[in-house]
Specification:
Elements lengths: L4 H9 L3 H12 L3 H14 L7 E6 L6 H13 L5 E6 L3 H4 L11 H4 L4 E3 L8 H17 L4 E6 L5 H6 L4 E6 L3 H7 L2 H6 L2 E4 L7 H16 L12 E3 L8 H17 L2 H28 L1 H15 L5 H13 L1
Parallel strand pairs: 1-4, 1-5, 2-3, 2-4, 5-6, 6-7
The structure holds guanosine-5'-triphosphate (GTP) and magnesium ion.
Length: about 325
């Protein structure tokens, strides 16, 4: 991409939509020269970031994440917040399935001037998609979006990745808890800063209240992620827009806890350090796989191992020696 860095920095800081789009496209690019420009851009933007509320939202497919984000986001823009919606969906490139954060699922925010929606990049590994989303978060914060909502699907590693890039992690559930409760992974409860039972409407209200009680009981038996915070369990209807204000109140309350204890800055600093090492490891792995020396040697070593002539540890030593050289 032919690229005017100064103009881009200025454009993003002025929240110019065109520049915002260009900056995010640059950040999403995997071309080596684009990566150089993107890194430089991010360095310039960094001092203008950190002011946003960062909230992750997870839940099984169809629980209503996008509908909820549309409703909550609209509630927030009506209160003069500026809301960016990002997504992490590493499966979308493989399955060709739904790309999270699809604008058609957020019809109100999609036409809201105070909102910016970026669907999940559909390329590559979890590491790649996570990198893009984190860096896009930097861009939108520099552009003055003061609420960043990150949607991710509640299966596998992506929710751990998202929990580690936000301040508040919200787990969405369905009413009819009996079955749900058995299916819920304990690990997800441990990540949750709040549980939200969605679709408490159309005759589901009683089931939703029962689910709320059951999840409260389940949470009481789970070690809290933060000793100063008991994750609340709330019932909402994303479609009818009920319960959204209570959800946001809880997010605000949690920020007061984090700010009063000084934890917010520490947590974000820790996230940055973990992120740096994750990137170092990712890049080392990429380089290892791309090394022609390693590739040709690996073939030979694999044959020797198959023939029982070489132990895996010795083969690993040889590969690393070839890589170091
Ligand atoms: N009754 C009812 N239906 C809802 C509610 N929220 C979402 N839905 C419906 O549930 C379906 C899935 O909603 P989405 O918002 O796309 O769910 P999602 O969790 O984002 O789904 P994926 O992105 O595919 O993982 C849609 O048909 C919505 O209309 C709600 O509060 N009440
Ligand atoms: Mg969705």
């Amino acid at each position: 991409m032919d690229f005017d860095l100064d103009a881009c920095v200025e454009g993003v800081l002025a929240a110019d939509r065109t520049w915002l789009g260009r900056a995010v496209t640059l950040v999403e690019s995997t071309r080596p020269d684009d990566r150089v420009s993107a890194t430089e851009l991010l360095n310039w933007l960094l001092p203008h970031t950190g002011g946003a509320r960062r909230v992750g939202i997870t839940g099984v497919p169809g629980v209503g994440k996008s509908t909820f984000i549309d409703a909550l986001g609209t509630y927030l823009t009506s209160q003069d917040h500026r809301v960016a919606v990002l997504a992490v969906d590493p499966s979308s490139s493989v399955s060709g399935g739904s790309i999270l954060g699809d604008k058609t699922r957020m019809p109100n925010l999609a036409i809201d001037d105070a909102a910016y929606i970026r669907p999940s990049p559909s390329s590559g590994s979890l590491g790649g998609v996570t990198r893009t989303t984190r860096e896009t978060m930097t861009v939108v914060e520099a552009a003055g979006f003061d609420v960043v909502l990150v949607e991710t699907v509640g299966v596998g590693q992506s929710e751990i990745a998202v929990a580690d890039m936000v301040d508040f992690f919200l787990v969405m559930m369905l009413p009819g808890a009996g079955d749900e409760l058995q299916g819920i992974k304990k690990g997800v409860l441990e990540l949750a800063d709040a549980l939200v039972v969605n679709k408490a409407d159309g005759g589901n209200e009683i089931a939703a209240q029962r689910a709320v009680r059951d999840y409260r009981a389940a949470l009481a038996m789970t070690a809290p992620a933060n000793p100063n915070w008991v994750p609340p369990v709330l019932a909402v209807s994303a479609i009818e827009g009920t319960g959204l204000d209570q959800v946001w109140e809880q997010v605000q309350a949690y920020y007061r806890v984090l700010t009063d204890s000084g934890e917010l800055a520490d947590r974000r600093a820790d996230q940055q350090v973990r992120w740096m090492w994750a990137m170092v490891e990712d890049r080392l792995r990429d380089r290892l796989r791309a090394s022609p020396e390693v590739a040709s040697l690996a073939n030979l070593l694999e044959q020797q191992m198959a023939a029982g002539q070489l132990a895996p540890a010795a083969a690993a030593d040889q590969i690393l020696t070839a890589f170091d050289e």
